[in-house]
Write a structure and sequence with these properties.
By secondary structure, the protein is α/β, with parallel strands linked by helices. It has two domains: about 130 residues, 2-Layer Sandwich (Ribulose 1,5 Bisphosphate Carboxylase/Oxygenase), CATH 3.30.190.20; about 80 residues, Rossmann fold (3-Layer(aba) Sandwich), CATH 3.40.50.790. The chain is built from nine helices and nine strands. The chain has a four-stranded antiparallel β-sheet, with helices on one face. Strands 4-3-5 form a three-stranded parallel β-sheet, with helices on both faces. A two-stranded antiparallel ribbon has the order 2-6.
Length: about 230
């Protein structure tokens, strides 16, 4: 195993690894593990009792975090006419149609979110091999294929995140930055956990949320009390 740096060791020592923390205390402890010179991302990893190989157990959704993500989000929009005007007015970074698709096919990938007018999906669909592997393909289930273009752009810019369980049954998502106060981290994480709780598949039998760990980009994990959180979410 690689030797840990002294700053990581100091951060590691601030955590009681035998304790399962409440939501409030976990966010406070997380702040104490900050050690990098840059503004680290605060992330959560949740082990779910689902089998993603079955379509009826896929967990996916989107939620607007009350305090945003602390990250500047670059948004591209595929739209024409009045919808394109709405996108520009809402602050989209790039707006286009076939011309934008050609630009993406040519290697342009300087963006974080893709939103599309439903009528443009015939054009966007051809970009599946480029956008799909990067998790950027628009989807009506998470509100990125919509006629309400202005609102979608504003939400994306304001802190809307998407979440999706991976093939191992684990869900990873950001919920803020190291510079956020513990209260803001708590508010964001609570809203995210509530959304994931509501996304529980109806076909699932047994325990849904098995393990929750939060961490900063360069820091150790802080384990949460799953039973307490599940009770509060119920």
């Amino acid at each position: 195993m690689a030797k840990r740096g002294k700053n990581y060791v100091k951060a590691h020592q601030k955590i009681n690894h035998d304790e399962r923390y409440s939501l409030e205390k976990a966010c406070t402890v997380l702040k104490e593990t900050r050690r990098a010179k840059f503004d680290e991302s605060a992330d959560v990893a949740i082990n779910l009792g689902v089998d993603p190989r079955h379509a009826d157990q896929m967990v996916r959704g989107a939620i607007v975090l009350p305090h945003g993500t602390g990250k500047k989000v670059r948004v591209v929009v595929f739209a024409k006419g009045a919808k394109a005007d709405d996108a520009k007015a809402a602050g989209a970074d790039f707006v286009g149609a076939e011309d934008l698709a050609a630009k993406v096919e040519g290697g342009f990938l300087d963006f974080d979110r893709v939103i599309a007018q439903p009528e443009m999906m015939a054009v966007v669909g051809k970009l599946g091999k480029v956008l799909g592997p990067r998790g950027l393909m628009p989807n009506p289930k998470v509100g990125t294929v919509t006629n309400d273009i202005g609102r979608a752009v504003e939400e994306a810019k304001g802190g809307k995140i998407e979440f999706r369980v991976d093939k191992t049954g684990t869900l990873h998502a950001p919920f803020g930055r190291a510079s956020f106060s513990a209260d803001k981290l708590h508010d964001n994480l609570k809203v995210l956990l509530e959304a994931i709780h509501k996304a529980r598949p109806h076909s699932l039998k047994g325990q849904y949320i098995k393990k929750i760990v939060i961490s900063l980009t360069m820091g150790p994990g802080v384990k949460l009390d799953v039973q307490q959180i599940a009770t509060n979410l119920a």
